[in-house]
Design brief:
- The protein is mainly alpha-helical.
- The chain has a domain at 59-204: Four Helix Bundle (Hemerythrin (Met), subunit A).
- The chain has 10 helices and 2 strands.
- A two-stranded antiparallel sheet has the order 1-2.
- Strand 1 (103-104) and strand 2 form a beta hairpin.
- It starts with 16 loop residues before the first helix and ends in a 6-residue tail after the last helix.
- Mean pLDDT is 81; it is low at 1-8.
Length: 210
């Protein structure tokens, strides 16, 4: 008896894929299927990678969000990319408020007071506060607000999501997060250091010397 051909659709196949992966008879076929699925989408993946500028960032607490949000976008996991971008933006704004020295009604807020006010507050209120306190400019205010709308739409949806909007929203979310990162947490990397890092990356994926 010949083995049945494995054909997996992204949404339907997920119901059975765990059992297939556990079955030694089908593991190799599953690997080939997954490899083929990625190969079929390689042009789109590379185009999405090319659409973004390099982003050098040193704060390790954000790396997991920024890196995974970008890779989810590259690989076409658009809802995950949006949600990670929104979570990262929320964390960034809280840290920005905590690290900025400012007064409210001529009273300089302590770290403890800031923690009590901002950690449990709605992101929309944090955004307005940061703008009114001149901690962020109008461009950054708009970027945070747009991401907050995505957060409401995708993390707390009140109606079924429409597939036709998801790709565009993911692209916008990634671009907005990049904007916020570059404005609020700028990091200038020396040209010589950038060249060293570039050589490491090129060598790692066997591209020779850049």
């Amino acid at each position: 008896m010949k083995d049945k051909k494995i054909t997996l659709k992204k949404n339907v196949g997920i119901a059975f894929i765990h059992g297939i992966a556990k079955d030694p008879k089908f593991r190799d076929k599953l690997k080939k299927h997954l490899l083929g699925a990625y190969e079929n989408n390689l042009d789109e993946i590379v185009d999405r990678i090319a659409s973004l500028d390099d982003l050098f960032f040193t704060r390790k607490e954000y790396d997991i969000y920024l890196g995974e949000a970008r890779w989810c976008y590259f690989y076409g996991e658009f809802i995950a990319a949006i949600n990670l971008s929104c979570v990262c933006a929320e964390r960034m704004l809280i840290d920005l408020l905590m690290e900025t020295d400012f007064c409210v009604n001529k009273h300089r807020l302590s770290s403890e007071e800031k923690e009590n006010i901002f950690s449990g507050q709605l992101q929309s209120k944090r955004i307005k506060f940061a703008f009114n306190a001149k901690i962020i400019d109008k461009l950054t205010f708009n970027s945070f607000q747009k991401l907050d709308k995505f957060r409401q739409k995708y993390i707390h949806p009140n109606k079924p999501l429409q597939g036709k909007d998801i790709y565009e929203d993911a692209q916008n979310a990634i671009f907005l997060l990049d904007k916020i990162t570059r404005i609020c947490f700028p990091y200038k990397i020396e040209t010589s250091e950038k060249k060293k890092l570039k050589k490491i990356v090129y060598k790692g994926i066997n591209l020779g010397t850049p």
